[in-house]
Amino acid sequence: xxxxxxxxxxxxxxxxxxxxLHGPGAFVLLRCDAAVAEMVGGAGPLRIVLITAADGASADxxxxxxxxxxxxxxxxxxxxxxxxxxxxxxxxxxxxAKAAPLVQLVRMGFHHLDATGALTRVKxxxxxxxxxxxxxxxxxxxxxxxxxxxxxAQGQAVAQQERAIVDRLTGSRRVTATLVIACAxxxxxxxxxxxxxxEAALWRMGANSGEAVRRGELYRLLASAFLHADPVHLFVNMxxxxxxxxxxxxxxxxxxxxxxxxxxxxGGSLASAMLVDRWSVGASGAIWGLMMAxxxxxxxxxxxxxxxxxxxxxxxxxxxxxxxxxxxxxPGIDLLAHLGGGVVGFALVVTVLPRGLTPVEQRxxxxxxxxxxxxxxxxxxxxxxxxxxVSVAVALAAGRPWExxxxxxxxxxAVADTGVALDLPESLxxxxxxxxxxxxxFHTYGRLPETPMMLQLAVFPLGGEVPPDQVDxxxxxxxxxxxxxxPANSTTKxxxxxVDLGGRPAVSLRSELKNGLxxxxxxxxxxxxxxxxxxFSTKDRPASWNGIExxxxxxxxxx
Length: 559
Description:
Strand content: 15-25%
Oligomer: single chain
CATH architecture of the largest domain: Up-down Bundle
Helix content: 40-55%
Shape: elongated
Structural class: alpha+beta
Largest sheet: 8 strands, antiparallel
Distance between the termini: 120 Å
Radius of gyration: 35 Å
């Protein structure tokens, strides 16, 4: 009895199904009807879609059937292969070629098994499993209805098991949510304390700095991981934390996850502080630790996840790493903090951290990660949480960022053995230093960005007291010299001018340095001494510090 052409196409499709299901790829059937059959790899990340086409089908209607299936492919998913079974050779190949996207979100392959039984790769990746199944078409019979039902039941069982595992991996978010809330609250606090700019507030709240850490301010190593430069910085980091955190928290359990996060944050801060002479804030080091921990689990799973899921993780693991590495090379990004946190997270997960955990498929609940109580683990997790909380508290107590909102308290300060004194904000007086440049001693008060302003003062002996009628002549020479000498690294804001400082004549020049700092220079004469006083500040310093340089300069006098 002759068979209809449609039956012959289905027969060829079902033989191909049988060859794939019984081949070395351990494929699992998820869907099967007269138009489309879909299967996934049981031993590795792979998706095959078989589209049945009548032998006389033309290219356009066939393309209309293939295109939605191709568009349904998600970024980061397993490689996808589309096989048209049936249809004329020219029409099938044309439809597949048209459906292949120029930019592929995953690796794809497009193949045609035509009415003559010839298999052609039209575009994209080759598929050895498909080619092997094609060679064995003559050795296998088509799947019958009972065989298809049995294969679909097995596929549904596998899919249900994977859904159960995924549910268990998304059921624990308390630690992740707490970390997100802590970072958001501290950003709001930094803006509340830092009126105009919160750079000074961030420093006082624990920004990481190699110089400060070497001075003994170790609390910055963990406190800085909870601070962020602006809302965009916070959003990007918290989005990444919410992407990696819940799965790892559920997989490892909240205690081990907390240890992973804290150790990664510390590793990132140490790498940045020890190798870079600048200050930084952000949770990126800890987040890189989480990302690399995911890669570590994919490479060395410790039996926690089924092989098929591990294979899928391996196929997706390198995509976020590549994107984040490119992002980390941008100016202003702390690459060393990222790499330091990533190395720590990866090392912990491939070595000791997952040991003794219950495989996810054996857990009845999401909270059953630990097979038995572990007191030492509980103590270690508690110490990690305490270290992070105490670091933030110590940073606030030491930095007192709330002082930025109020006018600074002033204290009378003697300038070493120069015989000169002036009123200084207490926070600047506490950060005093002396530097010798070309034989001139500069007395410096404050450290940017630790303080909103930095003041410098130098005193030059004049060999005797200058008579009042010669003071104006001396200051006029200084004014002309300031106007004539314009440093290449600054832009002046008008000419040098004569001003009155606390009843004394002086010269003043305002300029802006190329790094954005505002500088005010004052020159005045005190008896037998000439005093050069400079103030440096950011453009958007706290409003309570506006005009402080003028107030301080007006108090300069002899002791």
